[in-house]
Structures are given as structure tokens and as C-alpha cells.
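Supplementary Methods, section 5.1.

A reviewer requested that the exact input to the structure prediction be made available. We therefore reproduce it here, unchanged from the version used in the analyses.
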Amino acid sequence: MRGTLALAVTLTLTLAACASPAIQPVLTPPTGFTGPAVEASTLRMDDGAQLPLARWASRDQEPWAVIVALHGMNDTRASFRLAGPYWAERGIETWAVDQRGFGQAPGRGVWAGEARMTEDLRTAVALARASHPNAIIAVAGESMGGSVSIAAFGSDLPPAADRLILLAPGVWGWTAQGPVNSTGLWVAAHTMGPYAVDAPEWAIRAHPASDNRIELFRNGRDPNSIISTRFDTLYGLVDLMESASRRLGDIRAPTLLLYGGTDNVIQKPAMRAALRRAGNRPGFRTGYYPAGWHILNRDLQAETMYRDVEAFLRDARAPLPSGAGPVLTALEARE
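The structure derived from this sequence is encoded cell-by-cell as follows.
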């Protein structure tokens, strides 16, 4: 009886101390603000915030396609530093931005919220369209960037892009986390939200994101990468991934989802459940790489993905050069 009473008192005190997970504050545009714009090394958003921009473009021709590229969790615009030059040689320009809370963007380490992140994507796409009105405009979202992309394209106000490319998108939301993970993260985010933790060393070794060890080393030593993650930021990420897992079937733009058979980050049950929920629709295609890892655009077989993306941009219905088959078929065969 005493133990039960003590537990009840502890739980009551814990819940009383709860605070909502932090989200970056709404910004007010500066005086004289004239609206979103492409600047020398940034994209100016609708609220005046500047998102650092990396661009890879052909020097001798106007691009026939432009990819607005969104990086994954704790990563930066540099995540497309290998893909960008490859595509540029083939007339495809890449715009990779640091999303809010990451890299050198405003609010480093603090979650920006789904509404703000998706609105930034809409703005970036609109700027790309205005800069290159005759080009095919596409979005490529990797991992968390894929979650943001799905949330935006599956909403009532999708970005005005012609294609969507999802690279191992984050769909590991609350329903896929299970009750133990969900409860633990909820409590941590509401009681210790600003406290940041590193991923355990054993987990990093057991679940590498790529077979490209050199790129993993470079990424880990990049001062713009985030190593310690706040609990409330993790909470926001899982919230976003839940939205992505539920909206995948609501996307109307021609879409190519690519996933690797050795992905240790977005687990197969979560991807399988999201694809089953999404169902089949015209224009929604997937490609399964048996030897692919999580960060597909930096794997040792990354050029396979680069070629498939180029082919999809040229003709959204054409066969993929790699011959990659449907993801769900491959995952169901492994159940």
C-alpha cells in the first residue's frame, strides 16, 4: 500500500512539473522586408529568416531541372555535396538548404515545428520556380527531410513542384514506436525537454547509416552537424514522422520513394506499415535497393540512386535504370 501511494505521489509530482516541448518562436519580418528572396548564400523566407543555401549548377547551360533538397535529422545542406555535383554535370541544379534548427539556420538545436518547416519548403519551391520558370522543379527529401516533404505534399496546400523524391523518408512515428518508447519519450520531452543527449556509441556501431565510412567520419567531424539532441526536439521529430506515415497516401504529385534493404535507421516494419496505409495510386512509385543503406545519396552505391532520380525527372513513368523493384513487395517477402 505504501509503495502504491509513493508511486502515485511521484507520478503526480512528475506530471505537475511537465512543460510543453519547446518550439522555435514565431519571427516578425524586419522593417522594410520585401518578401522571400534568393540571396547570395541564403534563401530569405516569408518571415525574414535566412536559411543557408548550397547550390550546384552547370556552368554552361540553363538547368532543365532544379531539385530543392532537404537533409535529414541533425544533418546539414552538405549532405548533398556528392549528389549535387553529379546532377549538375547532367543539367540538374540542386538547392540544398539548412532547415531551421539545423546547420547554420536559425534556432540551432531547437525544433521549429511541422507548420514552419513545411512552409519553408513551400517558399523554397516557389523561389526555385520563379528563378527557373521553364525547368522541372522537384523536391528531394532525405530521412527527416522526407518527413517534411510528405507532410507538405500530403497537406491541403502542397508545394508547387512537379516531382517528389523521397530518400528513406522518416515514417517511424508514434504508432510505430510502441508504448514503451512513446511513453518514455513523452515523459522526457515534457520534464527534461532542453536536456540534450548523445546517441550511445554501441548504437552507432550497431546501426550505421551508411557503408561509406569516410562520409560518416566527415559528417561526424562537421562542426555544423548536431551530435547531442534535445528531448523535445526528438519529440517533435517523432510527431513529424507520425504525420508523414499517415499522409504518404495523400500526395498527388508524381512521387518516387527509394529505400535500402540494409537501412538500420528507418526500420522495415515502420516502412512496411506506412506503405500499406498509403496504398496504390497513379504516379506513386517505389524502388528497393537490396544493398542500400539509410543515407542513400552517400552510400558506396550512391550513383545508382543518382541515375534513377535523373531518369525519374526526365520521365516520371519510365523504368528506373537500376531496375529497382517495389519496396513493399520486397519487404513483405522478408516478413
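The first strand starts at residue 37 and ends at 38. These observations are discussed further in the main text.
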